[in-house]
Amino acid sequence: MVAWGLGGGKRCGAVAGVGRGERWASLRSAPTYDGAQLTGLIVEVFRKFSSVIVLINLKGVKMLLLDEIRDNWKLDAKTENGHRYFYHINEVDKIKNGKRSYVIGRKGTGKTAISEHIASVREYDVFSEKLSFKNFPFNELYNLKNAGYTAPNQYITLWKYIIYSHICKMMSRNESVDASVRDKLKAAFSPEPINSLQRWIKKWTAHDFSLTVFGVGGKMGFKENVENNSWIQKVDILESVIDDYIDNSSYYILFDELDEDYKNIIDPEQRNNYTHLLTGLFKAVQDIKSIFREGGRRVYPVIFLRDDIYSIITDPDKTKWDDFKIELDWSRDRIKELLAFRISRAVGVGTPLMDFKSAWNKLFLDQSVFMGHMQNKSMTIFDFIERSTHLRPRDFVRYIHSCAENTPVNFSRISAKTVKDSDKAFSNYLKRELVDEIHGVIPDIQSILDIISQIRKQAFSEAEFREIFEKKKEEGSIVQSDPVFILRILFLFSIIGNQPKQKNQTVFRYLNKDAELNFSENFVVHRGLYKALQIM
Predict the structure, then answer these.
(1) pLDDT for res 208
(2) Of 277, 309, 327, which residue is a domain's last?
(3) Which range marks the domain in which residue 244 is found?
(4) Are residues 387 and 342 in the same domain?
(5) What confidence score (pLDDT) does residue 200 get?
(6) How many domains does the chain have?
(7) Do 409 and 487 belong to one domain?
(8) CA atoms in the 13 A half-sphere facing the CB of 18
(9) How confident is the model at residue 19 (pLDDT cuts 50, 70, 90)?
(10) What are the φ and ψ backbone dihedral angles of 244, each rounded to 5 degrees?
(11) How confident is residue 22, by pLDDT bands cut at 50, 70 and 90?
């Protein structure tokens, strides 16, 4: 028989201040168990204790999931952990193998994430330079045009020179390139990574920049606005060097954030300068691809550009660019796959990828969101979030991040109430995003959105819009004089859509990029902007 006595969390014989006789009496009065009873007791205690530990661990995992989303889900791909969260879509392989060179899409559709991913590849035979034009003084580029060519071809030579210079720069740090060639390239093109694109371009186009190229011409002076044949000669020399000495490595030159000078586009001179510069870049890339396509030369310049900017570029050969173009479009199913991936990665880097339903239920409670005047209508949490977005990854990341931020710290999953309460914060975010996008086309976009706020209706007619528009124009708060142009731009960016006569039907361009604004139908405001525009 075994005696089992507990006293104050210690063995009763070890309780301080208890005499020997008292201890013995206490021990004699404790319940006694045979071996089988004791084993059963231990098993029962262990079972209950283990259940508590499992519950604590499960809740801890979910709490860690919310903390991970709060702290590490970012809107800007440059500040997020790409190794953990980059979602590999099929289009990426086509870019990496050189089959596609133009990546076109709305803000928030993943252009920068792809460019960051390619730039982060670390392999012995892969080299990349990411050329970000954020805060770049575009006037310096406009001044470097080749006056020997008519518009819009006057910038092709400049872009080819920039691309070739960066390829030579990458070759200078490639151990597979002949050492004597590398040394000569290093003398002219410092192999250090780019910290300031403006600094490198200014250096390579300055009057005192010179290089000796393998017996081809001695000292070469690189000056702004030099003679036409000098520009062409420089490009020809670099092209010959690359063709003669490049190895089988892959060289990526990634052009991103080219929208920096996308402003005041309604001014003809500004619009022509900007679109001609971009047209020259597309043509330069097209030309370079045709030159190095043969012989296994892996020279891969890639342009990442917003679709609304791409749409204003005009050129007789633009349809030919479709052969090298990828448009980043997201469907409901693709968004679900992306979210399943991100939630799985948020749980842990080594976590097996879950299907959408499993991943979603780890993060959200299985509840419906109730709506309507009497709260008698309902929809799933995903559907409620989706209808406020433009079906862009960034929109969902922002909405879910807001929900995580608004979830009480003692909650392990996001409730329907939290999702509904986060709608206003998301609406304000979406409005800011759209203002940033449209400002280059309509500088007084904020005043235009105020018109919709004053109408204060989900659906309105062209006449209602015109009435307030004319008043604001008389007040001087709106510079643009054409309301039709304004409405077309609002439709282009899916701030408004059409309301057909069929019930519960709407037409938005983000769902159908070929859709055109129909002035014979009412206009409807996108659901995600209701709160930000004070529409009830």
Answers:
(1) 47
(2) 327
(3) 85-327
(4) yes
(5) 59
(6) 4
(7) no
(8) 16
(9) very low
(10) -80, -30
(11) very low
- Cβ neighbour number for residue 422 with a 10 Å cutoff: 23
Contacts of 315 (CB under 8 A, 6+ apart): 152, 279, 282, 283
Extract the tokens encoding 21. Answer: 């006789």
CA distance 399 to 392: 11
Residue at 178: amino acid letter:
D
Query: Mean pLDDT score of the chain, rounded to an integer?
Result: 83
Considering 327, 359, 386, which residue would you say is the last residue of a domain?
327
Please tell me whether residues 360 and 482 are part of one structural domain: no
Q: Residue 149: its pLDDT value, please? A: 76
In terms of DSSP bridges, do strands 6-7 and 459-460 run parallel, antiparallel, or are they unpaired?
Answer: unpaired
173 in the same domain as 244:
yes
Q: Which of 311, 283, 31, 4 is nearest to 163 (CA)?
A: 283
CA distance 230 to 17: 101
227/148 Cα distance (integer angstroms)? 8
Contacts of 289 (CB under 8 A, 6+ apart): 98, 101, 299, 301, 324
Residue 491 burial (CB count, 10 A): 20
Identify the residue with better confidence: 190 or 535.
535
In a domain, 393, yes or no: yes
* 251 and 123 together in one domain: yes
Q: 504 — alpha (psi -120 to 50), left (phi > 0) or beta?
A: left
Pick from 380, 406, 394, 381: which is nearest to 342 by CA?
394
For residues 351 and 489, membership in a common domain is answered with no
372-391: average pLDDT? 92
pTM, rounded to two decimals: 0.82
Domain check: are 389 and 487 in the same one?
A: no
- Do 334 and 396 touch, CB atoms closer than 8 A? no
Nearest to 254 by CA among 206, 302, 306: 302
Residue 70 included in any domain: no
- The reported pLDDT for the residue numbered 40 is 57
From CA 12, how far away is CA 64, in angstroms rounded? 41
Please tell me whether the peptide bond between 152 and the residue prior to it is cis, using omega within 30 degrees of 0.
Answer: yes
405: tokens are 């931020």
* pLDDT number for residue 62: 54
